[in-house]
């Protein structure tokens, strides 16, 4: 929990303040090892709210979650500026509280909490004597961590379906009581143990468990066993909600629009090179932009808390705000898929996103297979359409390589040269034809005569004087 | 002269052939033969032709008057500059002079043309032998002096001072033979190492003469 450790913040702060007042010192302080971070937390969280370290359900690496006994779990979504456009936060006190700031710095800081909330109670309590932030602070990273609600169900899943269970005995999971489940939970993390003291959380977890488990009444208490069918149903509900609310723009672009894009089939001949290039761009942009660029410099990476950088850079988690508008306009026109197909694809994309982000790997595979064969949603029209598009794409590819060859042969420069040569030939031909027309048949015939060994007549007859008529 | 400069044609129309004839000074008119042919085709057989050219002409004027009707057609042919060398042809005593029917000469040329492109003409005391050697074989036609009292046109006269043997291109000879219609008799004049003269006599001492360079050497 070193979201903002006291010591490193305090010390450089003071010196920084000095620097600001005097502006004479030129030596820069070494950058802080753990600078303050900006969090946006739920407004009405109880004071008991904590940041806890829990294993990430998908990767089972420790991850930070925000827990409020009343509201449940929150995950942190990191919103960052692209690396190529450096940004920073300027944390400033409120102007109209300058006086009170002079009198009692703690008050202003408390008010500031609404915007810049310290992460743990410790920091909060100590903040009264921390004057550094109230004097203004420039944070190096323009990262913003937003706490977004997280279904506790996902945190339960690794316990309900331990990764050790092999595929064979998956169906023969034992029914286990709620308490035993929770004990297993507590064993995994010290923080969980503390959390489980909240009765409200227990009730919350039980309620969620009911949704995805087969339950049997064993006298005093209920026994639970994970039901994959129920889980699938639950996830599908989530996926549908996500799809109907609209997928994030970058996901929509990469996984729905790009997948449904109809390849350009009719390449206009006269500017074949240009159009071929432009279609290349159209196809490349969505895939590259969302595929490789977005993860590296996207404005946001979900599920990423302070010290687990890069923990969840899965391909689906990029909520890239980086505008894909250009690419969108390019491909928008060429999407001519039936509405239900697009809808199905959205649902499936949302499901895959949820699965890769929140499900343990062993569960993920099984559920994705189940999704393909589920009766809840019929994906056959989507699959058929995608297959059709695939064949179209390969056709377009073949066509393009063909037209590339053609265009290379008739490039602009060569065209000019060829035209010149052709014009020359034509002129020559015309000249010849003209000559032939003026020549008599006899002359033409005589041109073929073999005159080898025949001396020219001028060798026999001298040049005549002008008096030829006298002869 | 032809394009290869191995043959030459010369036609003399004496002033007696014209009525009236008027020429104030010597003047050379360069006329494109193809154009002249085109215009002459506009004439009819019995038309009276008048040729006219000004002193410093750029056209030659042809008038065709129909002798029967009052039809009068008039054509101008643009003249051309003839930069071709004007060769003076000396009157030569030939070693051999052969007079024969023009139809006969045409026939020989045509027949031998089927075998070869060139013909060897040998004149000896016995007669004149046209011989050729081709891919498919060889052939020869020999003529002896012959006098036909009834039809003097069919006479063959060979006037020989010394034996002559020369080779000529048949293609050219065949072309010369097209003038056969102008005259019943043709005169072939040969001398070793000298162009062959083929002369068709016309009325009023006029003549049409062809000259053809012999083939020397046997590189073919």
Q: What do you see in this structure?
A:
The complex is a heterodimer of chains A (471) and B (220). Chain A has 471 residues and is α+β, with helices and mostly antiparallel strands. Chain A is built from 17 helices and 11 strands. In chain A, strands 1, 2, 3, 4, 7 and 11 form a 6-stranded mixed β-sheet that branches. A 3-stranded antiparallel β-sheet of chain A has the order 8-10-9. In chain A, strand 3 and strand 4 (72-79) form a beta hairpin. In chain A, helix 10 crosses helix 13 and helix 13 packs antiparallel against helix 14. Residues 1-24, 97-130, 267-334 and 466-471 of chain A have low confidence and may be disordered. Chain B is mostly beta strands and 220 residues long. Chain B has 2 domains: 29-78, Roll (DNA Polymerase III, Chain A, domain 2); 88-212, Proliferating Cell Nuclear Antigen. In chain B, 12% of the residues lie in helices and 35% in strands. Chain B has helices at 33-40, 102-113, 170-176, and strands spanning 7-12, 48-53, 59-65, 72-78, 96-101, 118-123, 128-133, 138-143, 157-160, 164-169, 185-190, 196-201, 207-212. In chain B, strands 1-13-12-11-5-9 form a 6-stranded antiparallel β-sheet. Chain B has a 4-stranded antiparallel β-sheet with strand order 8-7-6-10. The two termini of chain B are 23 Å apart. The mean pLDDT of chain B is 89. Classes of the chains: A alpha+beta (471), B mainly beta (220). The A-B interface holds A 438-440, 442-443, 445-466, 468-469, 471 and B 1-8, 26, 32-34, 37, 85-91, 117-118, 169, 171-172, 175, 178, 194-195, 211, 213-220. Chain B: It is found in: Nucleus. Chain B: InterPro entries: DNA_clamp_sf, Pr_cel_nuc_antig, Pr_cel_nuc_antig_C, Pr_cel_nuc_antig_CS, Pr_cel_nuc_antig_N. Chain B: Belongs to the PCNA family.
User: Mean of residue pLDDT of chain B?
Assistant: 89
Spell the H/E element sequence of chain A.
HEEEEEHHHEEHEHHHEEHHHEHHHHHH
Largest interface: A-B, 30 and 38 residues
Shape of chain A: elongated
Largest sheet of chain B: 6 strands, antiparallel
Helical content of chain A stands at: 40-55%
Oligomer: heterodimer
Question: Could you tell me the radius of gyration of chain A in angstroms?
Answer: 38 Å
The main sheet of chain A comes to:
6 strands, mixed
Mean pLDDT of chain A: 67
Q: How many domain modules of chain B?
A: 2
Overall structural class of chain B, as computed from helix and strand content, comes to: mainly beta
Text of the CATH class of the largest domain in chain B: Alpha Beta
Give the % helix of chain B. 10-25%
Low-pLDDT residue spans of chain A: 1-24, 97-130, 267-334, 466-471
**How far apart, in Å, are the first and last alpha carbons of chain B?**
23 Å
Q: What percent strand of chain B?
A: 35-45%
Alpha plus pi helix count of chain A: 17
Order of secondary-structure elements of chain B: EHEEEEHEEEEEHEEE
Distance between the termini of chain A: 131 Å
Subcellular location (chain A): Nucleus
InterPro entries (chain A): RNase_H2_suB (IPR040456), RNase_H2_suB_wHTH (IPR019024), Rnh202_N (IPR041195)
Keywords (chain A): Nucleus
Protein name (chain A): Ribonuclease H2 subunit B
């Amino acid at each position: 929990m070193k979201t903002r450790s006291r010591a490193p913040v305090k010390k450089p702060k003071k010196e920084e303040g000095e620097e600001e007042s005097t502006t004479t010192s030129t030596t820069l302080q070494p950058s802080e090892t753990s600078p303050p971070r900006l969090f946006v937390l739920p407004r009405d969280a109880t004071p008991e709210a904590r940041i806890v370290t829990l294993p990430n359900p998908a990767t089972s690496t420790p991850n930070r979650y925000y827990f409020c006994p009343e509201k449940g779990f929150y995950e942190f979504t990191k919103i960052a500026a692209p690396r190529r456009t450096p940004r920073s936060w300027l944390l400033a006190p409120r102007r109209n509280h300058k006086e009170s700031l002079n009198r009692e710095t703690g008050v202003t800081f408390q008010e500031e909490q609404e915007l810049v909330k310290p992460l743990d109670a410790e920091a909060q309590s100590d903040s009264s004597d921390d004057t550094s932030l109230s004097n203004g602070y420039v944070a190096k990273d323009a990262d913003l961590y937003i706490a977004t609600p997280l279904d506790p169900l996902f945190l339960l899943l690794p316990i309900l379906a331990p990764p050790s269970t092999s595929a064979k005995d998956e169906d023969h999971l034992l029914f286990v009581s709620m308490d035993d489940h929770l004990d297993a939970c507590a064993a995994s993390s010290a923080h969980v143990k503390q959390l489980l003291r909240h009765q409200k959380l227990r009730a919350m977890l039980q309620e969620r468990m009911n949704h995805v488990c087969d339950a049997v009444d064993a006298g005093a208490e209920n026994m639970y066993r994970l039901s994959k069918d129920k889980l699938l149903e639950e996830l599908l509900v989530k996926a549908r909600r996500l799809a109907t609310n609209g997928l994030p723009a970058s996901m929509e672009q990469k996984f729905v629009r790009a997948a449904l894009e109809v390849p350009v089939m009719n390449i206009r001949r006269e500017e074949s090179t240009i159009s071929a290039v432009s279609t290349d761009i159209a196809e490349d942009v969505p895939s590259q932009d969302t595929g490789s660029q977005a993860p590296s410099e996207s404005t946001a990476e979900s599920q990423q808390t302070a010290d687990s950088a890069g923990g969840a850079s899965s391909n689906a988690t990029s909520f890239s705000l980086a505008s894909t508008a250009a690419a969108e306009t390019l491909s928008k026109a060429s999407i001519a898929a039936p509405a239900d197909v697009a809808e199905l694809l959205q649902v499936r994309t949302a499901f895959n996103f949820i699965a890769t982000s929140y499900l343990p790997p062993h569960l993920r595979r099984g559920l994705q297979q189940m999704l393909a064969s589920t009766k809840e949603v019929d994906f056959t029209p989507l699959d058929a359409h995608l297959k059709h598009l695939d064949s179209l794409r390969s056709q377009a590819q073949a066509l393009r390589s063909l037209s590339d060859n053609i265009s290379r042969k008739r490039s602009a420069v060569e065209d000019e040269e060829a035209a010149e040569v052709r014009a020359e030939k034509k002129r020559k031909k015309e000249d010849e034809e003209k000559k032939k027309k003026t020549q008599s048949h006899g002359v033409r015939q005589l041109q073929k005569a073999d005159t080898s060994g025949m001396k020219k007549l001028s060798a026999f007859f001298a040049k005549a004087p002008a008096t030829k008529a006298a002869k | 002269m032809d394009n290869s400069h191995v043959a030459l044609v010369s036609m003399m129309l004496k002033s007696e052939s014209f009525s009236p004839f008027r020429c104030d000074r010597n003047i050379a008119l360069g006329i494109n033969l193809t154009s002249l042919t085109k215009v002459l085709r506009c004439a009819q057989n019995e038309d009276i032709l008048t040729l006219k050219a000004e002193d410093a002409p750029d056209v030659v004027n042809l008038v065709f008057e129909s002798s029967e009707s009052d039809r009068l057609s008039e054509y101008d042919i643009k003249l051309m500059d003839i930069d071709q060398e004007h060769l003076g042809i000396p009157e030569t005593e030939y070693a051999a002079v052969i007079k024969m029917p023009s139809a006969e000469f045409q026939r020989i040329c045509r027949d031998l043309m089927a075998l070869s492109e060139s013909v060897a003409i040998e004149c000896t005391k016995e007669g004149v032998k046209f011989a050729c050697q081709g891919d498919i074989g060889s052939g020869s036609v020999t003529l002896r002096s012959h006098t036909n009292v009834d039809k003097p046109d069919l006479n063959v006269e060979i006037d020989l001072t010394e034996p002559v043997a020369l080779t000529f291109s048949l293609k050219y000879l065949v072309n010369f033979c097209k003038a056969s219609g102008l005259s019943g008799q043709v005169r072939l004049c040969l001398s070793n190492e000298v162009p062959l003269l083929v002369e068709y006599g016309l009325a009023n001492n006029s003549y049409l003469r062809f000259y053809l360079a012999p083939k020397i050497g046997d590189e073919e």
